[in-house]
Amino acid sequence: MTETSDSSKSTFDINVWSKAVQGINVSDDELQAVVENYLICNALEETLVCFRKESHLDTTIDMPPINFRKKITEAILSGDVTHAIELIDELDPEILQINYEITFLLKQHHLIHLIQKNNALESLNFAKTELVPCIKDNVSLEANLEEALSLLVFSDKTCPEAQQLIRELDRKQDTAERVDQMLLKHYKVDSKPLLTSIIQEMKKTQGSLTGKLAVDVPTLEQLSRGGFLTG
Fold first, then answer.
1. Name one Pfam family in it (predicted).
2. How confident is the model over 106-159, as pLDDT tens digits?
3. What total of structural domains would you count in the chain?
4. Which letter does DSSP use for residue 118 in this model?
5. Among 79, 144, 173, 212, which one is most buried in terms of CB atoms within 10 A?
6. pTM value?
């Protein structure tokens, strides 16, 4: 480490820094765990199969089936939440029983579909029998249900006001992501890839060194090829 023209700061030589980084001992098992976790979280099934085969990893560990996760996501995005619920129950009937908020979100999409078909009686019955039991003491879910039912006052569900409300409530992409996170959590897999956490922690540490401690260090910016940038 050498002093810069600014006496309040010190800087690291890039060669010294690189040598120190290369000297860090990371086991193959640790690297494989990070890669495997990334592939699982991002549902990259074919790559995961090849990686496990090449790395001789244990494939008997209980993991959320990627093909099921993909089918569930596709069903939600296409509006077929009934099929999505069936697929989740096929994995494990207890998943939705203990995740009543996710169950509510899924069934709310179906409720909105019924309301859009102008079937008021069926919509009210569905809300009473399927959604109300999911609310429990969750005030926000109760508000969501009331907001969804407010669509019934619109005789024309294609009017701008009704369409705006539908867009606000019928966010299938958000629901699909939450369902996938729920499935990963159920199988005790962190829904946030370890690699993402490592990079965020690295950025935080770099920020602390260059900020609070006033040290100029090479920063890893070109993540795709591990390139260092010097200050």
1. CTLH
2. 999 999 999 999 889 999 999 999 999 998 778 889 999 999 999 999 999 999
3. 1
4. T
5. 144
6. 0.70
